[in-house]
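ok so for the tutorial part 2 we go from a plain amino acid sequence to predicted structure tokens. step 1 is just haveing the sequence, like this:
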Amino acid sequence: MLKSVPKLLKSVGCSSKPRMVSNHSVWLTEDLRPTEVTIDISQGTQWLALAAVRLCSTATEATFEVKPFRLHQLENGPPTTVTLTRDDALKYYRDMQTIRRMETEAGNLYKEKIIRGFCHLYSGQEACCVGMEHAIRKDDAVITAYRAHGWTYIRGVPLNKVLTELTGRKSGCAKGKGGSMHMYNHNFYGGNGIVGAQVPLGAGIAFALKYQGKDNITLALYGDGAANQGQIYEAFNMAKLWDLPAIFVCENNKFGMGTSVDRASASTDYYTRGDYVPGIWVDGMDVLAVREATKWAAEICRSGKGPLVMEVETYRYSGHSMSDPGTSYRTREEIQEVRQKQDPIVSLKERITSSNLCTAEELKAIDGEVRKEVDAAKHLAKTDSEPPLEEMYHHIYSNIPDGYQVRSTDAFTQHATL
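step 2 — the prediction. this is what the tokens look like for a chain of 418 residues:
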């Protein structure tokens, strides 16, 4: 085994010079490090390869440039030079890769007719939810529309509970009763099926936070297809009157169902459409740009100077929902070009490997772990039992008294409720 060590190190891109010590260990003197590290190789070459990979990822942080932000009613915006640590880089990559693979499997389950009803996939938009989540606090509030799988996961719902909810199983995060559009978690208010309705609800959540004297903020997300609805501008007005700690986020994925933004909106500069509410445009295909802009916006809202409108320009790879092939109003070539030139996961991968924050082998290992996790969740989503019939009478009210019953479909039948 010792004779194969130099070749093995070279194969994983490690420039360290090995110095043999015994049949059980080897010292690696990393060119960029002043110290020597002893690695036990008694467990085999695969273990040594992974250890060498970790040693050769020498950078602990790196700086990157992001696209300039566009501002409305603002003098200064976030910095365009951003810093990324190695730990955060690996975390963001894992999160986005998990959401991408989860959505791919959700699409497969739908095609197998195991997921029924509506199903709106988030593939291509992963940088939006991952970047925002890593810029806010867990006790901040988020409310979004019906393209909610990625947000549900990033807000803390385990992978298996997302997929089992999609297949209507009892271990789902809403006990199999919510489905694709209605998933919730602590400080995550859905998942809302009515177009645009979550925006005034988000303003209400922000009002409650301010009324309670908390320094938390609310992200209220909507799509470009909902951006022309009157209720959104009513919410903007009330939020501005009361200086609510709300960031109204337009996830502009270029199409409202099958209608392009250019055909639907007289003005496609959604970040300016709050008029008297300041706004900012962000490259929604860059997780670092989204993180930096959200962090900056959150600080403004926490200081009592909210609300803000934030447009994150992104792209969805799939159709509007699973019933939409997504190619009747755009070409396959257009989708492929975005995948090749702007994909948020590929872009992050290229950045963090070229800056020596990690190696391609490390990311490949993460890909394998994610695949196993998603496969296990998919298996549970297909095999877990459906909720019992009496479950439909539970969780209708909160804080109900003991022995309370709800009526059935007729006036004479009563059912116990929890």
